[in-house]
Please model this.
Amino acid sequence: MQPLPGFRDLYPGDFARRNYLTSRWRETARRYGFVEFDGPTLEPTDLYRKKNSGGEILGQLYEFTDKGERDVSLRPEVTPTLARMIAARHRDFPKPLRWFNVGTCFRYERQQRGRLREFLQFNCDLVGDASPAADAEVVALLIDLLRSFGLTEQDFAIRLSDRSAWQSFMSGHGVPQEKAGEFLQIVDRMEKMPEEKTAALLAPFGVALATVKDFIEKAEIPALEPLLSDLEARGLRSFVRPDLGVVRGLAYYTGVVFEAFALHGGLRAIAGGGRYDRLLSDLSDGQADLPAVGFGMGDAVLLELLGECPSAKAREEAALKADAAVQLYLVIASEEHRAEALGLAQLLRESGWRVAYPLAEEKVGKQFGTAESSGATHAIVVGSEWPTLKVKRLADRHEESVPKDSILAWLANTRS
Amino acid sequence: MQPLPGFRDLYPGDFARRNYLTSRWRETARRYGFVEFDGPTLEPTDLYRKKNSGGEILGQLYEFTDKGERDVSLRPEVTPTLARMIAARHRDFPKPLRWFNVGTCFRYERQQRGRLREFLQFNCDLVGDASPAADAEVVALLIDLLRSFGLTEQDFAIRLSDRSAWQSFMSGHGVPQEKAGEFLQIVDRMEKMPEEKTAALLAPFGVALATVKDFIEKAEIPALEPLLSDLEARGLRSFVRPDLGVVRGLAYYTGVVFEAFALHGGLRAIAGGGRYDRLLSDLSDGQADLPAVGFGMGDAVLLELLGECPSAKAREEAALKADAAVQLYLVIASEEHRAEALGLAQLLRESGWRVAYPLAEEKVGKQFGTAESSGATHAIVVGSEWPTLKVKRLADRHEESVPKDSILAWLANTRS
Model:
């Protein structure tokens, strides 16, 4: 029996990698004063039908009728839940809200490499402040997040754009307001499309491809200036590139939009976001009329990227090694001392050490083998010399005798 | 718009409490050398239909047909997924496996206090060792887990029993093997049932209530001796009580069974588990014929209990306070120094501090108010004295001047 197509069994090694990812997500968000929230995995389908951010998502819902005859769906994204939660209680919290979520989402997508039907998403939203200072906090958070994995200016960049520049372009070139979403989707996809195709799609708007390319190349985005000087003050200016070629597909963005992308191995997007000052109001029927800026990222592309960048890979490997399942392995050299070994295991575990020992009698050599493969840094031998312990550093087999009563102090000392 | 009945919106304060819980779960399991795994939230319904642990669960499934015409269900428990994963790859891992999972599960239960339809569960399983030494590891883990919340011998105990004692009883009293499950369910519920009702249910088995009560009171469980001496060696003997009145409802247990329960405010069960040496083989059609012992616990009863025990409550509150959203609040005393404040925020965050500052110009008094309500321990004033900072400890308003270049060292010093 297999998991469903598009779903994953996470064995301990896979989970440790995911945990490395989510720990960095959480840690970085918290350095920026963000707090975590979560909502239900299953929601009334109406929450997604009501206002939806892109037509595609509705067709990919895991939707069904529950035993109480309710039309329900597994969440395809977390933003509608966030909007409901903020609408219900935003008066209880001082503004701006800095909220993040790490959660699984579900979309019935066509099966292809890297596309999962259950995937993990990180969402960060700063709600209740419409200023470029808020935009800068969120973009800086995204930069520091990627840096926390050991990724550098050589590995990624943030392309920054602004919907207002495109709004001016569209009104200047006679694109009607109700067609704006459609027009922007064409621009969003033009990098991945043959020029003739883009030109054909633009034709009904009466806009020439050359005009659009020219506008993008001129790259004048005055609205971005305050955001850029803010990032300059933080020393993060070099990570961002103003680029009108980024528009983001979603219809609801109103101001700055941005995309983190990998600089080698194809321009894969790692994360994307922007300002959406009307969405919360729309989703909550006006109950939460709050400006907001945020971004989302999934786990799949990022994990792929970490594997490809040597410095990031080395950092991940070091972190996983430091996080090994076992730190200390107790070798029980004579079975008569099992009770003492159990007492010692208890003492060490109560001090926070990750400890293992053989559950049954085993040859000492085999125990050392287990100790080494467990990832432990030290083996502690409990045997005839009790209450003196032999402590062996497994990396270089250096050995010391340590009285049982001073083992905690001795270990605290090696740790630091 | 509301969440579905039985589902929860976790606002940041609720999430922080849940996080306190899951952190202790993870930390304690890891001290025992356990590693985390996870599986899909959605599974083929056959996984649950095949062999099921209790009749009840199948009737409570969130079951539907997906867009690919597959019969699928939200997981009501994690054990069948564990069995599948172990069956597929157990040869890749040295035995015993020490695996744990923290995951949401879904059951369409009748709505009542404390019963949720989406709930968080912690599962710990030690697989591949049939000895009492393995039972002891798992029971000790459960005890240390509850102690990690500040719960003591006055707050909880573990009732220990053994299915083999009941097997002898049943064969000695002519209960046919195929009726064993039914008989044990009656015993499992007798504490909560009027005596006459239990007596009536036992009548068809030809066993008098007095005989059963007598057997329980005599409390002779020789099979538990090795487990009890193991716990004695760890100094944990006083937390457990041999008690044949515990049998656990699930049919699949084969040896020791146990239950952690609260000692005040009604004998609520906090966690339960036992040895199940045939389940993995049954669930995997013999592909993983491995003995196992484990337990599970939910978040709801435990959270309730922590609120009721003063020492546990105090520990939780201290942990939540130490984990406040913001540690350092930058007060921008003059707007001309905003760029310097941004640079300082970056420096502090890069050193791991959780930092906030006002996104727009604000009166200094208001900024101090925000600093205090944010949970920060210190306010750092950036103003006309730059590059000298004024650092105010918010608890007692003690103030010091610190040059910007030594702020990191100064803070590291206060922390320790």
Summary: Residues 132 and 227 of chain A are 5 Å apart (CA to CA). Chain A has a mean pLDDT of 93. The longest helix of chain A spans residues 12-31.
